[in-house]
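Hi, here's the filled form for the chain we discussed.

Project: internal
Contact: R.S.
Residues: 69
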Amino acid sequence: MIVRNAFSGQRRFGEFQKSLGMAKNILTVRLRKLVGCGILEIVPASDGSAYQEYVLTKKGRAFFMCWRR
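And the returned structure, exactly as it came back:
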């Protein structure tokens, strides 16, 4: 569900947490795992703030498209 939401444009931790209703500690572990597997990457916030955002990598987009079939 995290990958699906990232594909739909969600990028920030709070957006994932709110839409998924997942406990913060569980979401943190899952996001770290997706980053570690190369599905997501952490980038500086697009609005120039001090926050970070999660974006799908090329591998992550391919994974989502394959899974969606």
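Let me know if anything looks off before we file it.
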